[in-house]
Design a protein that fits this description.
Layout: H1 6-16, H2 19-28, E1 33-34, H3 35-42, H4 46-58, E2 62-68, E3 74-80, H5 89-104
Antiparallel strand pairs: 1-3, 2-3
Helix pairs in contact: 1-5
Amino acid sequence: MVNMDAAELSGKLAAIASPQRMRIIALLSGETLYVSELARRMEMSRALLYMHLTKLEEAGFVAGHLELSDDGKAMKFFEVLPFTLTVNAKTLVKAVAAHTESETI
């Protein structure tokens, strides 16, 4: 996650700027879970969990895929994608510069 413009960086930060989303990433770190199990562990409705997962997936932090259970039911599993996000003054300067350049082109 390097060389992002300000809009991209803002989107990434907004996606993880939630204690619930940070907890989802923490729970998925090192294991793949299906939505119902993740909802139980989060003590959250599946509908609300999907809202959080969608934001994390759009930002590139998690990925979901469907698998069939032994009885033929489709189950959606999620896992954390590898990422490194460094935010410091240098990151912000580069992001703003890239954003400014893209606006003038």
